[in-house]
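Hi C.,

You asked whether I'd gotten around to modeling the 277-residue construct. I have! Everything is below, sequence then structure, no commentary in between.
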Amino acid sequence: MAASILFSNAQTIRPLSISLYVAHPMASFCVQLSHKIRKLFSIQALQSLWEHLLRSTHPVNVDRILSTIDRDKMNRLREHYPHRPGSAKVNRFENANHWIPVNVERAQDLWLDRASPLRILDLGCGAGYFLYVSEFFGHEALGLDTDDDPLFRGTTELLNVRRIISRIEPGVPLPDLDGKFDLVTAHRICFQRIARRGKDDWEEWPAENWKFFINDIRTRFLRPEGRLLLDFNPHVDGSYFTPDVRACFQSLGGRFFRSKVLFAAEANQRAKFKRSR
């Protein structure tokens, strides 16, 4: 399949039809099977496979990166900052065994493991793992985040990565950050959330706030060949963008890939994930 198809704006390929007019409990089984087939034949599944194939062409020794982290100190951080009651495992950020591989994959998808040194800004840097992996690959990395979570403060200090303390607000320019960057990233974005409507359901920025934010990044922080990557959490319905926000991103030259949108420094430029030496 041509790579261009993988960047289609289409969401899914229509799955094979499966009859559900069967007696319980077979009906439940058929529903589950139908859901699995739908996932198997979705554009997102094909895009995920494509990412895995590209990473496999240039493997990274994750254990080598993990060996550079003082694991005893990392484990002691959790003793000082216990998990919040009911917190999901995915939010247990002291687990370097989980988060270093995740951020290696993020770096590979942007070809950071085989690019000449870049200046990188990571918005909402959290525990700092993406900054750490980026620096391991030879880049200069700076994070920006609030100082609300003491665990994040502890991990960024332990990893010895730099971050600016600031909050991203709708319609408010980012603080001056001493120059421009080759790459600006934001992973598992939460700063666009305005108010909680229910479990995992949020009121989020409308399109005009995104236009302001992207224009601020492009005009003040991106170098001429720079890139902006936004990586979103899924909504409760499995989508990543509301129709108006998707249309906004498209009008600004965004290139969609699963949960991610990639922008070039100018709206009329084609953004590229690949940037090799």
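If it helps when you're writing up: The CA atoms of residues 146 and 167 lie 5 Å apart.

Thanks,
B.
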